[in-house]
Structure formats: C-alpha cells, structure tokens
Amino acid sequence: MTEYEISCLGKTRFLTRRAAKHRANAIRRTGGPAFRAYHCTNYCGLWHLGHRPGHATYIRMTPNGPIHIQELTQ
Average pLDDT of the chain? Predict the structure, then answer.
C-alpha cells in the first residue's frame, strides 16, 4: 500500500470543516468514539475524521492480555 492509500483513499471525504464536525458530533451522540475533523493538505485537500488524542481504539498487549488504549485514557 502506498502512503496515499493509507492516509486518504479509504476515508470519507467532506467538502467543508462544518460538515465533518457535524458528522463527528452525530457519531458521538449515537455512542460512537470521539472524532475530530482534520484537513488533508497532502493529498485530496478535503476534510476527514480522525480520533481525538487519547481516544484511539488501537490494542496494546499486556501480560494480562490485550487492552484498548481508549480504556487506559478514560
């Protein structure tokens, strides 16, 4: 995979920051994760959604098994 495919191609694109923030808030209201809108300056020039700092859902291995990083920060 190229850097473009990882960073831009598979993500939902929004024309404006307002539209991206509106969708992020809608996801949050329905019990989803906390997202923030960011501008894709390197590739498409549009807006995407990404996890807020401390709200990523990546898994970290521990001696007691895998845990989500989100559980560590809340």
Answer: 78
Structure letter (DSSP) for residue 14: B
CB 70 within 8 A of CB 49: no
Gap between the Cα atoms of 34 and 42, Å rounded: 24
Q: What is the pTM of this model?
A: 0.65
**Dihedrals φ, ψ of 47, to 5°?**
-110, 140
- DSSP letter at 2? -
Per the CB < 8 A criterion, the answer to whether 55 and 33 are in contact is yes
Q: What is the Cα gyration radius of the chain?
A: 14
What is the per-residue pLDDT across 12-47, written as a single tens digit (0 to 9) for each?
Answer: 899 999 999 999 999 889 888 788 899 988 888 899
The rounded distance, in Å, linking the Cα atoms of 17 and 61 is 35
First to last CA, the chain: 33
